């Protein structure tokens, strides 16, 4: 999977790792899984690891469409989600900044982007120097579908 996520209930944190080339199809598939996850909670803070991402298949319009999906996870309600991105690669960092700027204009999702792992972890006040140590020390529940109706939509 190009996007994988898991949830730490004790820290109330979603962790996602993006790998390779990500496009709107991968983004939408992941978002549908996210809002259908048994541990989904609107507005849960997110740590997104973009260290293995190599490119985004799309441009400004694709970013805008993705942002509309995220901000419409509960139609009629603005869900404020703090999303911390770790993007050590220059080009991916640039893409993250574009997404951050669009998010700032749109409201809802609140995007922060960091070039260093320690910066991203520190922004979330996590007492770890690496994501690997966070994942090894805390209990992260892998993605799993909710047995009931979805808690939100991605339409």
């Amino acid at each position: 999977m190009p996007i994988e996520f898991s949830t730490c209930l004790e820290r109330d944190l979603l962790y996602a790792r993006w790998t390779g080339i990500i496009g709107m199809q991968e983004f939408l598939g992941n978002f549908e899984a996210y809002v259908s996850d048994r541990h989904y909670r609107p507005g849960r803070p997110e740590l997104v690891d973009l260290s293995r991402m190599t490119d985004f298949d799309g441009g400004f319009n694709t970013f805008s469409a993705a942002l509309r999906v995220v901000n419409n996870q509960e139609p009629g309600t603005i869900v404020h989600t703090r999303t911390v991105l770790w993007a050590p690669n220059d080009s991916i960092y640039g893409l993250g900044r574009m997404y951050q700027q669009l998010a700032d204009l749109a409201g809802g999702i609140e995007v922060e982007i960091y070039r260093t792992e320690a910066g991203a972890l520190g922004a979330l006040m996590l007492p770890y120097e690496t994501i690997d140590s966070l994942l090894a020390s805390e209990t992260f529940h892998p993605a799993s579908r909710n047995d009931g109706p979805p808690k939100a939509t991605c339409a």
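The chain has a mean pLDDT of 91. The longest helix spans residues 90-106.
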